[in-house]
Amino acid sequence: MGFDEIGGAVSKRSLKIYWLVDTSHSMAGEKIATVNRAIKACIAPLRDAAEDNHEAKMFVRTMKFSVGAAWHTEETEINDFEWYDLSVNGYTETGAALRLMAKELSMEKMGERALPPVIILMSDGEATDDYEGGLKELLAERWGQKAVRIAIAIGEDANITELSKFCSNPTENPPLVADRASELIAFIKWASVEVSKSVSHSVIGTSNSNVQLPPHPEKQVMIGAEDDEDDIF
Amino acid sequence: MEGKDFFKKWNSIGSSVIGASHEKRGLENQDSVSTNEHIIAVSDGHGGPRYTRSALGAFFATTIITEVCEDAIIKDAEDLDGIKHLKARFLHLWQKAVEVHLEEYPEIDNEGNEPQIYGCTFLCAIAYPNLVLILTHGDGDILGVYENEVRDLTIQNEKNFGGATLSLASLKDSSEISHKVLVGDEIPSLIVLSTDGVKNSYDDTDKEDLAQFYKIPLAIKKSLEEEGAEKAEEKIKSLLEMITKEGSGDDVTIAVLYNV
């Protein structure tokens, strides 16, 4: 074994971003249209962020949940990613979504070297299935615990208590509450683009979180909120 | 073999290369390496916006642990007092170095937790007449070569996972520094210490890819045997340059202690 025989296997680490979208009936109309618009709007800035990130390859994947949960898009490198609009039907089986997410985060699939995945959960209601059981399965995975888990509550009917339990650091980063379209777009962009820029840095293991998140976007959005004329959810 | 004759058997080489991504951003190499015959040490400064002086923290770590180990003799695997004293002296001197530096160059923009800006990990291997002592705190890897077999000697800790690592900067009690004593047949002919940027460049969900990482010590051994230390060190540097460019993008460092 010499040096000439080593090296071909070297590759960059993976940075994975997951969008988990509530597609229940109550999301019909402006809510789901805004989510579709927002994720589409994230693609270009995510590609720019990936271009600037020389330490990792960025992948994105979307899950929809209503009656059960299913992957809406395959895991795709951001440069090859295309968006297909989501439509709505049925209930809010968030527990099923968290179970499906847990399977994706197994050590076998993720390995140990990956960067902490970013999981963005968006919902306008509360789970109609076993949410606690799903969350327990997610947190039983080592990467489930270490993932950057961000929740976005869409409108005033979202169950904040439930979504708080999902968040990786609910004290410092509680669910983002979007009452209007402009806020929802800003929150999805922040959670996807800005957070993805933060996950490459090591932090001391005894701190509250394994990733130092950028400043919470709520105040920035609220400053201009009174001038917004967009729809209120 | 006993005393000074024993130490003559051991030699060391090492190299550290700035991360490809750090170079593009105009940053410095935040890893540090020290090789001193029978003592090797590597340290990885955490980097990022929170740890602005981690390169210096890493330099303090490798320099101080080498000095402390030079002055200390661990008699045998049962010499727990000796190991305890060595750990305590190292941590005390590292904290003192940080304190003195902070006094001289105060950090203005901080949140009242200044030592954290010097945050870094460290790994160290020391050959004594009857044993090899390994000391670690934080992530990074330790591999040993036994004839033509490579064994992973890394001391695992759940806290070194998922973007987080243990750090000298948050260490309050020196007994939390991990150690391993190798005696008799447990002593490898060659030990490789590497910062996490090296292993992070190999996809561990693919067994064949990961196997390449574990072949590095064998390649070093072969080069040492056939080409000598200088050439082996050059080849390690070239390997590290390729690894950071094609792989993790992180600062990458390897130190080797050998008696081949």
Strand residue content of chain B: 15-25%
Structural class of the helix and strand makeup of chain A? Answer: alpha/beta
What is the string of helix and strand elements of chain A?
A: EHEEEHHEHHEHEHEH
Summarize model confidence as the mean pLDDT of chain A: 89
Beta-strand residue fraction of chain A: 15-25%
Q: What's the tally of helices of chain B?
A: 7
Please give the CATH architecture of the domain at 37-199 in chain A. 3-Layer(aba) Sandwich
Q: What is the name of the CATH class of the domain at 37-199 in chain A?
A: Alpha Beta
Q: From the helix content, strand content and strand pairing of chain B, which structural class follows? A: alpha+beta
Q: Catalogue the unreliable spans of chain A.
A: 219-227
Shape, principal axes of CA atoms of chain B: globular
Number of helices of chain A: 8
